[in-house]
Amino acid sequence: MEVFRVKSIEQSIQDTEEPEHRLRKDLSALDLTVFGIGVIIGTGIFVLTGRVARDLAGPAVALSFVAAGIVCALAALCYAEFASTVPVAGSAYTFSFATLGEFPAWIIGWDLTLELMLAAAVVAVGWSGYLTSLLSSMGITLPAAIAGEGATFNLPAALIVLLLTAILVSGVKLSSRFNLVIVTIKLAVVLLVIVAGLFFIEAVNYSPFIPPSQATPAVEGLAAPLIQVLFGISPVAFGVLGIFSAAAIVFFAYIGFDVVATAAEETRNPRRDLPIGIIASLVICTILYVAVSLVVVGMQPYSQLSEAAPLADAFKAVGQTWAATLISIGALAGLTTVVMILMMGQSRVMFAMSRDHLLPAGLAKVHPRFGTPYRITIMVGVIVAILAGLVPLSTIAELVNIGTLFAFVVVSIAVVILRRTRPDLPRSFRTPLVPLVPILSVLACLYLMLNLPVETWVRFVVWMIIGVVVYVTYGYRHSRVSRRPLDSR
Known about the structure:
67% of the residues lie in helices and 0% in strands. The protein is an all-alpha fold. Helix 4 (61-85) packs across helix 16 (393-421) and helix 16 packs antiparallel against helix 17. The radius of gyration is 22 Å and the shape is globular. The two termini are 13 Å apart. The model has no long low-confidence stretch (mean pLDDT 85).
């Protein structure tokens, strides 16, 4: 069963010291926390809040954020142990290789490709939406053919991706400094929304806090949550079921803390700094998300919330155009860092896969001056730019979520396996209450996955089948692990 051969932790770490594959170690715990905040606070709060409140949960969308945050917290504890124990680029791909074997690792790497590249494209489309809103408030109208959900080719989304690709190629330290400036602006805007919005809240907008369940076009046909179809429940939005259906969608808002783990190889003291970066960024963002969602649904009836730019448009609705303009600027800044860090995470996952020759080995070449995997970074940037230009946000947000949740399930299982197979490994951070916490993480992630639409599951299965074909025809034949002795534990 060669496809299930495990790559030892020692071999994974040894690979990071090869001169042609050595990444520059420039990141601290603060850098990682800022990276986490930079990528987590983005489309979920600036874009998706309006859609899920209007279509699925109503004012109770705040509870959806809490539910999604709890699921992420369980997975984050598992990620923190792995990232500090195996400080190697690749995140869940590398963790799976060390515990489950080559083929499961490939599947997770393929899954992360789906998650990170599509997520970057989704956020770039959201960035374009806020740019369009900002320019409109200044009296500048972009042609519908090149901007917005219905654009023939979303030019602003593609251009921002290409610009950020150039920054990523130039070095991780430059990227972290750029990210720090932008995150500062973004946090200031989020706090502005919370504080300024309090003066325009109307209690009537919270009633009913949990709207009664009802059938709506948003949950008809293949858009129905899978769990409701499986148990023969007539698909409904709102109510308690609507809260969890919305949680499965706003889960996208938390995608990012796992990206922190992909920077393990570029961290000065990964055993200490990675757990801090992962957990701190998640806690900070959850608090801000709940506060912002409560303010926004209090400012405007949930049925009237905008899908493209809900925060900015909520302030426009109460006559505060100055705040709307500032929010649009902050959202543009915030979404910029999200796109950048998602692409950075994607390039590191593919870098690890290429280093193992599951993808063409030439892609793993590191730039001699900048110390970045520049070939993969450029390739990822071009693909994301094309996707952002052509694919509307609503089509792919759910697909990103199912890919992420699947990766969380595998990492949670892998923590338990590694505890049993390698109890000797030094662990600077240990997931508490093993195996209880990993089991709860698996169950919570699976429950959210079941709340995603049927059509999302169909697309996910098709993507995985394609991944198996690519592995059989290329990855298995070129795999580096089959050409050298490895630890089979």
